[in-house]
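Students often ask why inverse folding is considered easier than folding. One informal answer: many sequences map to the same fold, so there is more than one right answer. In these notes we will look at a single instance of the problem. The structure comes first.
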C-alpha cells in the first residue's frame, strides 16, 4: 500500500463543504470534489458535504453526506450550465443554510457556483470562506454555448468577482485558471492545486480485468487506442473519429498484417464513457466515416474498471478541442506506462510537452499522424513513457497535493 508524508496539521477543522454536483458520479468536477474530501480526511479534518439528491454515496472516514431535497422531474444533470442546475442549486442553498445555522464549523468550503451563495452564508454565520474554483463560470456560459446574452454573462462576471473578493482564499485547478485569478485579483490569496489524485485510492481496481475486458468487448488481439471520459462536444470525439478514418485508410506500417491495410491492420479504438445518447451519436458518426467496425463504445463504466482498460491499451488519446481546464485523465495518463497522443491545445500543453507526449495539430490529419507515430516509433515511445512517469513524480506527486491542500485550508481558516 502506498504511503504519503502528511504535512503537520496545526488544528483539526470541521468543514462545511457545498458541492453543486451529482455526487458521486464519475466525471470531472465530482472526481475533483472526491479527491479534495479524501485529502482533507486523510489530514484529519471532518467534512460535512452538502450536495445534490442525485448520485451515489461514497463511504469515507471523516465524511458525512447531507443531500438536498429532490426536485420533481429532475433525475439527472448534464455537464455544464442548465435550468435543472438552477432549481437544484436553490434547494441546495436551503439545505446548506440549515446546516450552517446549526453551527460548530470552522470553515465553509464551496465548489463552483456554490461560491455565489457561499458569500452570504459565510457572512451570515461568521465563517471563513474557501472558494474551490474549477473554472471561470462566465467562460462556461460561452464554452457550453448556454447563452450569448451580455446581461447574463455580465451578471456572472459580477457574481464571480464578488465571490473571489469576499473569499478568504481561492483554489484553482489548472495553470491557466491560476493566471486568470492572479491577473484579475492580484491581492487575493490563491493556490493552484491540480487534480493529481489516483482514483484507485478510493475505488480499488478489480483484479484480472484485462483478459475479461478483451473478451467482453470482442477485442481479440487488436492493438488498442483508448479514450476514456465524457463524450461532451469539447472532448473532440468527432476529431478522433475523422482521424481514425484517415489512419485506417492509409494503414499503419509495422502493425499486425492479419487484416488488409484498409481494414485497420488489427487496430481498435476503444471509447470508455458517455451517456447512451452520446454513444449512439458517436456510433452514427463512425458509421458515416466507414470505421464503425474499428470502434468499440462501452458507455458508462464504474471507476474501478478503468485500470483494466488502460492495461489492455497501447496508446491513450485526448483529442480535446476547447476550454482551458486540463482533463483530469491527463495526470493518470502520465503514470499509465502508455504512449500519450493529445492535441496541442492549452488544456494539454499547460501540463504536457513534446518529451512526454505526442502533441498534434487540432486537425484530423494531424491527430492521425500522431497516432501513427505512437504505433510505430519503437524506442522513442519507451523514452516518452519514462519521461512522463518522471514528470508525474516530480511535479504532480500526491504528497505535494496533500501539502497544498493543508496549506490553503489552514490559511483560509486562519490557523
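Output (designed amino acids):
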Amino acid at each position: 500500500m502506498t504511503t504519503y508524508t502528511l504535512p503537520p496539521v496545526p488544528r483539526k477543522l470541521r468543514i462545511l463543504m457545498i458541492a453543486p454536483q451529482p455526487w458521486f458520479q464519475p466525471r470531472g468536477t465530482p472526481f475533483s470534489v472526491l479527491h479534495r474530501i479524501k485529502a482533507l480526511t486523510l489530514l484529519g479534518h471532518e467534512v460535512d458535504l452538502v450536495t445534490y439528491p442525485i448520485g451515489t454515496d461514497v463511504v469515507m472516514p471523516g465524511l458525512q453526506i447531507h443531500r438536498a431535497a429532490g426536485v420533481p422531474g429532475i433525475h439527472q444533470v448534464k455537464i455544464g450550465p442548465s435550468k435543472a442546475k438552477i432549481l437544484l442549486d436553490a434547494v441546495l442553498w436551503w439545505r446548506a443554510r440549515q446546516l450552517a445555522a446549526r453551527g460548530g464549523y470552522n470553515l465553509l468550503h464551496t465548489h463552483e457556483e456554490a461560491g455565489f451563495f457561499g458569500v452570504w452564508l459565510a457572512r451570515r454565520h461568521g465563517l471563513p470562506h474557501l472558494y474551490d474554483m474549477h473554472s471561470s463560470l462566465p467562460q462556461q456560459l460561452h464554452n457550453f454555448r448556454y447563452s450569448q446574452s451580455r446581461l447574463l454573462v455580465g451578471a456572472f462576471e459580477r457574481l464571480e468577482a464578488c465571490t473571489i473578493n469576499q473569499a478568504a482564499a481561492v483554489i484553482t485547478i489548472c495553470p491557466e485558471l491560476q493566471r486568470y485569478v492572479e491577473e484579475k485579483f492580484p491581492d487575493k490569496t490563491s493556490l493552484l492545486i491540480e487534480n493529481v489524485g489516483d482514483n484507485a485510492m478510493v475505488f480499488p481496481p478489480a483484479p484480472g480485468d484485462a483478459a475479461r475486458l478483451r473478451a467482453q468487448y470482442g477485442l481479440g488481439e487488436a492493438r488498442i487506442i483508448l479514450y476514456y471520459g465524457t463524450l461532451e462536444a469539447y472532448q473532440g470525439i468527432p476529431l478522433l473519429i475523422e482521424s481514425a478514418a484517415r489512419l485506417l485508410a492509409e494503414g499503419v506500417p509495422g502493425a499486425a498484417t492479419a487484416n488488409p491495410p484498409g481494414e485497420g491492420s488489427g487496430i481498435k479504438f476503444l471509447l470508455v464513457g458517455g451517456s447512451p445518447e452520446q454513444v449512439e451519436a458517436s456510433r452514427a458518426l463512425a458509421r458515416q466515416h466507414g470505421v464503425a467496425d474499428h470502434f468499440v463504445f462501452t458507455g458508462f463504466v464504474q471507476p474501478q474498471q478503468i485500470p483494466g482498460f488502460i492495461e489492455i491499451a497501447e496508446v491513450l488519446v485526448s483529442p480535446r478541442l476547447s476550454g482551458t481546464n486540463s482533463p483530469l485523465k491527463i495526470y493518470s495518463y502520465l503514470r499509465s506506462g502508455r504512449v500519450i497522443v493529445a492535441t496541442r491545445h492549452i488544456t494539454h500543453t499547460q501540463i504536457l510537452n513534446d518529451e512526454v507526449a505526442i502533441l498534434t495539430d487540432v486537425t484530423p490529419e494531424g491527430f492521425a499522424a500522431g497516432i501513427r507515430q505512437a504505433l510505430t516509433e519503437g524506442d522513442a515511445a519507451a523514452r516518452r513513457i519514462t519521461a512522463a512517469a518522471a514528470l508525474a513524480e516530480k511535479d504532480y506527486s500526491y504528497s505535494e497535493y496533500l501539502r497544498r491542500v493543508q496549506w490553503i485550508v489552514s490559511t483560509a481558516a486562519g490557523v
